[in-house]
Inverse folding.
């Protein structure tokens, strides 16, 4: 099974997915439609465009994003090159990310040239899918997952077709996206609770420019001359539709905005209609799972998301954790007591120190050792009694 949190996951992905079909995407619209169904376009991935299904129920959001980006890059390679050549794809994807080098993309300095290219690509993708430098946000909040990853796909397609990336390509694409999203939000007939969060998500996802909602006043001021291929135009239309969506509908005035935008882009009305229908259907089906439609209280979202992901980490390492815990009778006793009363200051110190010692021996739990990680220890403590009911019952009986 693939685990995108452990080195070697890219090679494992290709090993499990082989053999690949020789049926490649037939057109840009075909490629885009298949990609859009996965949720990748909206920064909320629900599936992968792979021939062999991949179960992601127990995955962390960042793991889903990492594999989603890798696979979409690979599908772009398959579309452009009409090839399944794994080694060439990995080399080109690695070189591509070395060339784009935005200022915020600091991990390039940390990748060791001595590592295999696939391992180096894993590190680059890990950094690319995130937008925040805050440790806890990076690892536990899908609110800060990069929502504009499809811009990477557009740039990668340019790289594969031309052998290089047009000067300032990513910067100009981001400028168009910022203008369209900002103008779309201004054009809405009513303000919804998610608008500010969506704007913040886009703001946190840009890497080459600064977000500004004041540059473009009307759709007539919108400069779309830089957009040349269909994928760029489909993407802009969908982002506008996402921005305009509220209360499970797009009002007539907002439809007019989309049709006007489509006309400026040279896109047929039938494609605009399909975009509206898809955005409506996707958000209606997954609204409860998409952070920027639910995160009225960011603190609550952070707590809920953190709780869920700590649970995933604990369940993955349950056997190892049980083994380590069973070797410390004092810790087991104190954890059992914590379910019935508040521990005193000295007892809490002992629990903290002994749990951190255990985390050192379980690689997947070293997140608790990093700066800010100790803030998550109460959640770890919360889940342990549920994981070891029989042991805790015995402790209770001995009181």
């Amino acid at each position: 099974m693939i685990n995108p949190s452990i080195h070697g996951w890219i090679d494992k992905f290709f090993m499990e997915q082989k053999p690949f079909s020789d049926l490649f995407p037939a057109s840009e619209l075909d490629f885009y439609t298949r990609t859009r169904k996965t949720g990748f376009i909206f920064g909320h991935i629900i599936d992968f465009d792979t021939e062999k299904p991949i179960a992601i129920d127990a995955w962390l959001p960042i793991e889903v994003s990492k594999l989603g980006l890798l696979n979409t890059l690979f599908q772009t390679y398959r579309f452009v090159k009409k090839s399944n050549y794994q080694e060439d794809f990995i080399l080109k994807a690695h070189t591509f990310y070395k060339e784009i080098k935005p200022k915020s993309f600091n991990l390039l300095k940390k990748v060791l040239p001595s590592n295999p290219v696939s391992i180096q690509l894993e590190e680059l993708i890990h950094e690319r899918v995130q937008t925040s430098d805050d440790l806890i946000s990076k690892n536990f909040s899908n609110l800060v997952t990069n929502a504009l990853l499809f811009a990477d796909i557009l740039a990668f397609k340019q790289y594969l077709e031309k052998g290089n990336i047009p000067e300032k390509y990513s910067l100009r694409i981001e400028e168009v996206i910022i203008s369209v999203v900002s103008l779309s939000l201004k054009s809405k007939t009513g303000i919804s609770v998610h608008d500010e969060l969506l704007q913040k998500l886009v703001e946190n996802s840009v890497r080459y420019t600064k977000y500004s909602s004041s540059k473009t006043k009307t759709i007539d001021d919108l400069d779309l001359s830089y957009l040349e291929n269909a994928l760029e135009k489909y993407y802009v239309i969908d982002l506008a539709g996402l921005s305009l969506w509220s209360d499970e509908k797009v009002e007539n005035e907002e439809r007019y905005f989309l049709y006007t935008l489509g006309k400026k882009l040279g896109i047929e009305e039938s494609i605009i209609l399909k975009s509206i229908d898809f955005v409506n259907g996707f958000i209606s089906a997954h609204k409860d799972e998409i952070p920027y439609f639910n995160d009225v209280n960011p603190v609550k979202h952070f707590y809920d998301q953190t709780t869920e992901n700590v649970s995933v980490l604990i369940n993955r390492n349950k056997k190892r954790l049980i083994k380590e815990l069973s070797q410390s009778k004092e810790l087991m006793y104190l954890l059992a007591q914590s379910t019935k009363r508040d521990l005193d200051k000295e007892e809490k110190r002992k629990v903290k120190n002994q749990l951190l010692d255990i985390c050192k021996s379980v690689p997947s739990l070293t997140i608790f050792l990093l700066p800010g990680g100790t803030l998550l220890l109460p959640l770890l403590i919360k889940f342990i009694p549920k994981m070891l009911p029989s042991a805790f019952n015995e402790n209770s009986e001995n009181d």
User: Anything to note?
Assistant: The two ends are 43 Å apart (CA to CA). DSSP finds 18 helices and no strands in the chain.
